[in-house]
Specification:
- This protein is of the alpha/beta class.
- Helices cover 31% and strands 26% of the residues.
- The chain folds into two domains: 2-124 and 302-331, Alpha-Beta Complex (Quinone Oxidoreductase, Chain A, domain 1), CATH 3.90.180; 128-277, Rossmann fold, CATH 3.40.50.
- It has helices at 41-48, 119-123, 126-139, 156-167, 181-187, 216-224, 241-246, 251-271, 284-295, 312-320, and strands at residues 2-6, 16-19, 29-39, 61-62, 66-74, 86-90, 102-106, 110-112, 147-150, 171-176, 191-194, 207-212, 226-234, 274-277, 303-308, 327-331.
- Strands 3, 5, 6, 7, 8, 15 and 16 form a seven-stranded mixed β-sheet that branches. Strands 11-10-9-12-13-14 form a six-stranded parallel β-sheet, sandwiched between helices. A three-stranded antiparallel β-sheet has the order 2-1-4, with no helix packed on it.
- Strand 9, helix 4 and strand 10 form a beta-alpha-beta unit.
- Helix 3 (126-139) packs across helix 4 and helix 6 runs parallel beside helix 8 (251-271).
- The longest helix has 21 residues, at 251-271.
- InterPro entries: ADH-like_N, ER, GroES-like_sf, NAD(P)-bd_dom_sf, YIM1/Zinc_Alcohol_DH_Fams.
- This is NADP-dependent oxidoreductase.
């Protein structure tokens, strides 16, 4: 089959179109013919080698985490899906490869595609949707009446997280540029801060939850706007000891991650707030819950551009600019 592979790590490396073997199908796998694939900054970071310490993929490997397509084969023990089902998924770590014609995914990581979405729209959701769900529902346990600060509201995670937080009944503050203020307001943001003109720390106080996606300086400022007992969930690092334990890291990596996060954990403790790192995981049942919210109209995908599959390098370069409003997708059809 045709696939775009990472031949070697590096910021200047281009994905290369190659002919590789089709994936095997284990007894609990579904084989998906890919129609569309979402792009994420994670794809760029993996290609650059930024995550080699925690996700040591051996080159060459096929990139891509988000998929929407049709099941064309099922393993002998698959019970949730049938050939012909239209599905979407975030492929699990070490089984990624959605920038290809086919991918084999464990059935527990897959969900039926929302009926009211196209394949392109569906492919834009899994990684950002699951990130927002695992941060706000699973980790933060966000409740009606609470206040949440979601950074970078016009980005892929931000556009989804704002809508999810509003569905949960929270008051939402976010940052964006002046060009995207109307967009985030339409999504449900109650307080919008133009990060180029205003410091969010001067306006926000006593927040219950922060979803951090920015740099260390922003992370430290975000700790200070939380109320005592408030929770900061960071998707941009630094990884913490709990994460090291969850991935079964070796002793050296556990020590390294403990050291990397020591300063932030100390600052959070002094302020009486909670810090945790989230590296989202594939989860089909949570994606099915998201499907219900999408089909009911509570959450709508926000897409910036759809590129032809052959222009995947151009699409990834556009994601890297950080200017995308919502998600970028490539389509095979």
């Amino acid at each position: 089959m045709r696939a775009f592979i990472v031949p070697r790590y590096g910021k200047n490396e281009k994905l290369q179109l190659a002919e590789i073997a089709a994936p095997g199908v284990k007894e609990d796998d579904v084989l998906i013919q890919i129609h569309s694939a979402g792009l994420n900054l994670l794809d760029s970071k993996l290609r650059n080698g930024e995550f080699k310490m925690i996700l040591p993929y051996k080159t060459p490997f096929t990139l891509g985490h988000d998929v929407a397509g049709v099941v064309i084969q099922t393993g002998s023990k698959v019970s949730k899906f049938n050939v012909g089902d239209k599905v979407y998924a975030r492929a699990a770590d070490y089984r990624i490869g959605t920038f290809a014609e086919f991918i084999s995914v464990n059935e527990d990581d897959v969900a039926i595609k929302p009926e009211n979405l196209s394949m392109d729209e569906a492919a834009s959701i899994p990684l950002v949707g699951l990130t927002a769900w695992q941060a706000l529902v699973e980790k933060a346990n966000l409740k009606k009446g609470q206040k949440v600060f979601i950074q970078a509201g016009s980005g892929g995670v931000g556009t989804f997280a704002i809508q999810l937080a509003k569905y949960l009944g929270a008051t939402v503050a976010t940052t964006t540029s002046s060009a995207n203020i109307d967009l985030v307001k339409k999504l449900g943001a109650d307080i919008v801060i133009d990060y180029k003109k205003e410091d969010f720390e001067t306006r926000l106080k006593d927040y219950d939850v922060v979803l951090n996606s920015q740099d260390t300086k922003t992370l430290e400022k975000s700790l200070r706007i939380l109320k005592p007992g408030g929770k900061l969930i960071s998707i941009s690092g630094p990884p913490d000891p709990e994460f090291a334990q969850a991935i079964g890291a070796n002793w050296f990596l556990k020590i390294a991650l403990r050291v990397l996060s020591a300063s932030i954990r100390r600052k959070a403790k002094r302020l009486g707030v909670n810090f945790s790192f989230l590296f989202m995981r594939a989860q089909g049942e949570q994606l099915s819950q998201i499907t219900k919210l999408v089909e009911s109209g509570e959450i709508k995908p926000v897409m910036d551009k759809v590129f032809p599959w052959e222009q995947i390098n151009e699409a990834l370069a556009y994601v890297e600019t950080g200017r995308a409003k919502g998600k970028v997708v490539v389509t095979m059809r």
